Amino acid sequence: MDKATLRRNYIKACEDYALAFAEKHGYDELIEWSSDYSLAWISDMPISLQTIIDDIEIDAPECEFIKWYDYVIEMGMLGDTNPMNFSSWVNGCPRRSKDQIDKLKKLQEEIERLKAELEKMLDDKNY
User: Fold this and answer.
1) Domain residue spans in the chain?
2) Which is nearest to 68 in space by CA: 49, 47, 89?
3) Alpha-carbon distance 63 to 111, whole Å?
4) Could you tell me if 73 and 101 are in contact, meaning their C-beta atoms sit under 8 angstroms apart?
5) Which of 22, 28, 91, 114 is paired with 58 by a 20 to 30 Å CA distance?
6) pTM of the entire structure?
7) How far apart are alpha carbons 109 and 120 in whole angstroms?
8) Quick check: 24 and 34 in contact, CB under 8 A?
9) Mind giving me the DSSP string for 4-59?
10) Per-residue pLDDT tens digits for 13-35
11) Helix (H, G, I), strand (E, B) or coil at 74
């Protein structure tokens, strides 16, 4: 099979998975892709092709995707740069409790307050 045919087949498979995902979750079918088809924007959410494939292949419950997505976004805002993948989420990998997340939020607020205090002190000393 030539490269052009392989590429067309790959793009078709990506689009078919994304359309199945969008239909399953009730999202608009307007899908934008990154240049290498590794990332799709569906309903204004960037979603990796692997996440889309995992969701369809393991037939994950519909509510789990948005729970995972919200969790990953929240953890990212708290500084977690290594989020769990969707497949791990569905399979029950450990995750932070609401109490742990609330504690992290309070600690982050305290860090921001201390940063602002330090900047003010430096400004007052003309550093």
Assistant:
1) 3-95
2) 89
3) 34
4) no
5) 28
6) 0.77
7) 17
8) no
9) HHHHHHHHHHHHHHHHHHHHHHT--S-EEE-TTSSEEEETTEEEEHHHHHHHHHTT
10) 999 999 999 999 999 767 899 99
11) helix
| Residue percentage of the chain with pLDDT more than 70 | 98
How many helices and strands in the chain, by DSSP H and E?
5, 3
Tokens of 21: 């995902």
Q: What angle do CA 82, 84, 87 make, to 5 degrees?
A: 150
CA angle 62–64–67, rounded 5-degree value:
125
**Are 78 and 112 in contact, with CB atoms under 8 Å apart?**
no
**CB contact set of 49 (below 8 Å; sequence gap of 6+):** 14, 17, 18, 37, 38, 39, 40
Tracing tokens 């369809």 back to the chain, one arrives at 56
Give residue 127's pLDDT: 59
With tokens 């290498």, the residue in question is 36
